[in-house]
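From the methods appendix. Each design record in this collection lists the tokenized structure first, followed by the designed amino acid sequence. Records were kept in a plain field format so they could be parsed without special tools. The example shown here is representative of the layout used throughout.

RECORD:
FOLD TOKENS (167 positions):
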């Protein structure tokens, strides 16, 4: 069961450890991967501060397709290599953008976004499942500690059973 209490700490390592603990409790007994992604988006939307969008794009037929999210309506399809999400997916590595206006080809789904971090979700077999995308209206909102914490979240989600086959 999720308790709607905000995690209170300035220590990002402890913050993400607590987020992972809450995530584990949410997904432990739920076999449906999509329901788990929905709850993961809600959890991150509730716990992360200074963000205006958090969610998932799923890898389908050589593009990213909008999945569960929290925030304003978003772009539905993103080509591989396009924007921050498509770049992270194509490179299969986390992309941290301190100022989205300085990122070539940035896709502005929400004009309030000023910084962004995108973490690819890759399963144990090395297949791309999708990406975790977090936007902020604050410049330089994300750092390497956020990258490490969100990579752990993505790894946990990638280990969930029942993901559909990807290309």
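DESIGN:
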């Amino acid at each position: 069961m999720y308790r709607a209490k905000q995690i209170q700490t300035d220590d990002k390592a402890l913050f993400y450890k607590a987020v992972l603990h809450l995530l584990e409790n949410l997904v432990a007994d739920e076999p449906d991967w999509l329901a788990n992604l929905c709850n993961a988006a809600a959890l991150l939307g509730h716990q992360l501060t200074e963000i205006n969008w958090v969610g998932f794009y799923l890898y389908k037929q050589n593009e990213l397709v909008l999945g569960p999210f929290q925030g304003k309506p978003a772009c539905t399809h993103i080509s591989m290599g396009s924007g921050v999400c498509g770049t992270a997916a194509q490179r299969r590595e986390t992309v941290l953008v301190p100022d989205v206006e300085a990122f070539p080809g940035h896709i502005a789904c929400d004009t309030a976004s000023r910084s962004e971090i995108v973490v690819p979700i890759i399963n144990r077999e090395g297949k791309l499942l999708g990406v975790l995308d977090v936007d902020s209206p604050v410049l330089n909102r994300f750092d390497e500690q956020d990258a490490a914490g969100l990579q752990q979240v993505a790894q946990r989600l990638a280990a969930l059973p029942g993901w559909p086959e990807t290309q």
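APPENDIX NOTE: The domain at 12-158 is CATH 3.30.450.40 (Beta-Lactamase).
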